[in-house]
């Protein structure tokens, strides 16, 4: 390389490959949550056909819910698996609990994001699954200041036998990617206060804290606003596809008022393909109820919420791909108001 | 190809190329918001056209080509922000705030600014993106030979510009030319 080349190289604005933070991951998932190659969607059965298939499978404790009026009254439903609350009533019961929520100086969201992926990059040609985890935190003060925290946690192989055959590595390079490899040791903590003009995003809609607080507490009005927010991104996919996730975001990911959270639960109960799978535990072992949403064109649900009906808290949000594919889960460790000051993420 | 194949493929490509596409956008956009938009739109297009995405290293070059067109459209019109992801913008903002080497190289920025967009882009693709003339030809959709000739001319014009902005750097220009002869 000539001297002149070195001079130009030296003024490179981005000389070091930046890490993939939570924003990069969110973007990837938002894109993958839409249909690739839209022309193929037409060849698939419409969601109603899929939903009927699901309804047939949903025997036992699971209750399939068709169109349900938002005003449905909670009532126990008898099924062959015993007595269970219907999906609507579970969501509506959660809606009722959502109205009471504690206060504090900072709204704090702390999520553990775990991703199980197939690892095809082994030099020895051995493929196995790897689980990677990241902590992601966000604080919002009442005056609108916001902070972001992020930390990559340890990666671990899920097939120990294959991992040993691979020579028991403690680092896994991301293919030819020049960025740091996944590691069995936790990464550095990233923590910073955002600029003043910073907005919170509800789907594609930038919003201030005040605007989030002022969202309508009526489920139908809230659904309309959700569609408006989704449309801001210029139609990456059908608006309705993003509705379950967008409404669910109000339950844990944004500082919405208790009334708005309650309305979000009620709005979720009105979605055509909501299904309660029944009692389960989240990856932390916390007991909850699993609720899935079917998106048009899909045979299996892509999003599963685990909620604690007693507190109305969302415990985890799972992205389901296919049985052999990658899966990921956001475990909600904290979501709510606190007086604890923002600080860099620890390893837990 | 099944949808599952598409998904694994997209994710692998995203992970492998994200840093490079982000770097590309950051080097060419004046604000983190614009860079975030270019990155987001590039990958939205890649996802929609996943069937056309070439395998292997060709995928990266194809993405550079998409990013280049996205950037051109972006500059042409004051468009609505595509990026919903405030976190992405924050991460990129961080990059913009990182200490730059600018002050250490007097005259070099100015010389770059004196070049035509096409010359600047060729030097950038070579020296910042690290592409060889064959790869540049793929991104710019021209022949390898054309890329090589254009790059040679861009280097020459840059050396001339540098003589104006930094007279003491004249020696670089002569050295550049001797080096070119020997290649």
TrEMBL record, chain A:
Question: What is the name of this protein?
Answer: CU044_5270 family protein
Species source reads Streptosporangium canum
Taxon lineage: Bacteria, Bacillati, Actinomycetota, Actinomycetes, Streptosporangiales
Automatic annotation (TrEMBL), chain B:
MF terms in GO: DNA binding; sigma factor activity
InterPro entries xref list: RNA_pol_sigma-70-like, RNA_pol_sigma-70_dom, RNA_pol_sigma70_r2, RNA_pol_sigma70_r4_t2, RNA_pol_sigma_r2, RNA_pol_sigma_r3/r4-like, WH-like_DNA-bd_sf
Q: Provide this UniProt record's keywords sorted from A to Z.
A: DNA-binding, Sigma factor, Transcription, Transcription regulation
Which intervals hold domain RNA polymerase sigma-70 region?
Answer: 14-81
Q: PANTHER family attached here? A: RNA POLYMERASE ECF-TYPE SIGMA FACTO, RNA POLYMERASE SIGMA FACTOR HI_1459-RELATED
UniProt similarity note: Belongs to the sigma-70 factor family. ECF subfamily.
Output this protein's name: RNA polymerase sigma-70 factor, ECF subfamily
Lineage of the species this protein comes from: Bacteria, Bacillati, Actinomycetota, Actinomycetes, Streptosporangiales
């Amino acid at each position: 390389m000539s001297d002149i080349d070195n001079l130009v190289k030296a003024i490179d604005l981005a000389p070091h490959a930046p890490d993939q933070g939570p924003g990069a991951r969110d973007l990837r998932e938002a894109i993958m949550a839409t249909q690739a190659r839209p022309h193929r969607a037409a060849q698939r059965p419409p969601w109603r056909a899929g939903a009927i298939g699901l309804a047939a499978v949903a025997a036992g404790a699971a209750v399939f819910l068709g169109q349900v009026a938002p005003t449905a009254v909670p009532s126990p439903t008898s099924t062959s698996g015993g007595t269970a609350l219907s999906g609507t009533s579970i969501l509506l019961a959660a809606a009722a609990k959502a109205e009471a929520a504690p206060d504090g100086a900072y709204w704090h969201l702390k999520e553990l994001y775990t991703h199980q992926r197939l690892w095809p990059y082994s030099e020895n040609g051995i493929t196995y699954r790897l689980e990677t985890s990241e902590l992601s935190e966000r604080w919002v003060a009442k005056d609108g200041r916001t902070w972001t925290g992020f930390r990559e946690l340890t990666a671990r192989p899920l097939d120990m036998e294959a991992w040993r055959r691979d020579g028991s590595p403690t680092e896994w390079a991301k293919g030819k990617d020049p960025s740091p490899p996944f590691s069995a040791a936790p990464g550095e903590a990233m923590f910073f206060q955002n600029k003043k003009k910073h907005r919170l995003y509800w789907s594609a809609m930038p919003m201030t804290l005040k605007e989030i607080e002022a969202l309508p507490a009526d489920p139908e009005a809230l659904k309309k606003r959700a569609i408006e927010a989704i449309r801001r991104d210029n139609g990456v996919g059908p608006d309705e596809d993003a509705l379950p996730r967008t409404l669910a975001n109000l339950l844990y990911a944004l500082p919405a008022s208790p009334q708005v959270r309650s309305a979000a639960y009620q709005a979720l109960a009105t979605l055509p393909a909501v299904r309660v799978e029944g009692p389960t535990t989240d990856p932390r072992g916390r007991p909850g109820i699993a609720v899935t949403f079917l998106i048009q064109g899909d045979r299996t649900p892509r999003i599963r919420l685990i909620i604690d009906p007693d507190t109305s808290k969302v415990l985890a949000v799972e992205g389901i791909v296919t049985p052999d594919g990658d899966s990921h889960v956001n475990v909600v460790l904290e979501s709510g108001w606190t007086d604890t000051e923002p600080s860099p993420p620890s390893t837990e | 190809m099944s949808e599952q194949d598409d998904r694994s493929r997209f994710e692998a490509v995203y992970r492998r190329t994200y840093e490079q596409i982000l770097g590309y956008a950051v080097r060419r956009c004046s604000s983190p918001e614009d860079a975030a938009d270019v990155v987001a739109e590039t990958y939205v297009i890649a996802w929609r056209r996943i069937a056309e995405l070439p395998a292997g290293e060709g995928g990266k070059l194809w993405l550079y080509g998409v990013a280049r067109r996205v950037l051109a459209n972006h500059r042409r019109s004051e468009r609505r922000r595509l990026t919903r992801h405030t976190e992405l913008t924050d991460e990129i903002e961080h990059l913009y705030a990182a200490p730059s080497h600018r002050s250490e190289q007097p005259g070099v920025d100015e010389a770059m600014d004196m070049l035509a967009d096409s010359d600047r882009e060729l030097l950038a693709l070579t020296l910042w993106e690290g592409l060889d003339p064959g790869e540049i030809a793929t991104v710019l959709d021209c022949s390898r030979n054309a890329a090589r000739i254009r790059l040679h001319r861009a280097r020459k014009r840059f050396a001339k510009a540098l003589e104006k902005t930094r007279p003491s750097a004249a020696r670089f220009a002569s050295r550049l030319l001797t080096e070119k002869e020997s290649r």
